[in-house]
Amino acid sequence: MKNMMEFCYKALLIFGLLGLSTSTMARDDLLSFDFDEVLQRGYSEGILDENITFKLVGQKHKAVIKKFSNYRTNKKTRRLGKPEVESCAWALLTALKTLQARAHSLNANAIINIKSNYKNREFSSSTEYQCGSGFIMAGVALKADVVNL
Questions:
Q1: In this predicted model, what pLDDT tens digit does every residue of 86-118 receive, in sequence order?
Q2: Topology of domain 27-148, per CATH?
Q3: What's the CA dihedral at 42, 44, 50, 52 to 10 degrees?
Q4: Three-state secondary structure call for residue 45
Q5: Any idea what the Cα angle at residue 44 is, between residues 40 and 48, rounded to 5°?
Q6: pLDDT score for 1
């Protein structure tokens, strides 16, 4: 009887820990961070082309000469073992680099009206972007207009 009780106790403990760990691993927090801080890092580290202007929705910019289209990007990066702020910054830089490549291909010089669109939940801010952060991955999804100013 004692052995059976020990077995049941250990089994409950193991299943409880497994349940706790899978709920932790399945987390998917939606976080907001400063956009300009990451943008300036991208310019200073040479990740982004300084000839391309990036503006969040609501930020002032020169008059639009030509609008090409609205584009979307969705980029993910490994988060495991990294701080959320670092993983999210890298996901944002990757997303901006993708939009920048689109601008280059169209001979455009700006990406404006940038909005976060993580899991199709639109978020507009003139100062922040949103990042989905889970246990293993972090992701940034953006919508923006590619234009010439």
A1: 999 999 999 999 999 999 999 999 999 999 999
A2: Translation Initiation Factor IF3 (3.30.110)
A3: 10
A4: coil
A5: 75
A6: 55
What distance in Å separates the CA atoms of residue 82 and residue 149, rounded to the nearest whole number? Answer: 37
CB proximity list for 111: less than 8 A, separation 6 or greater: 52, 53, 54, 55, 96, 99, 100, 103, 144, 145, 146, 147
Which pTM was predicted? 0.81
**Is the pLDDT confidence value at 127 over 60?**
yes
Instruction: Let me know: does 53 contact 111? Beta carbons within 8 Å.
Output: yes
Which residue carries 């300036």 as its tokens? Answer: 40
122 pairs with which residues across the strands?
117
Q: What is the pLDDT of residue 20?
A: 41
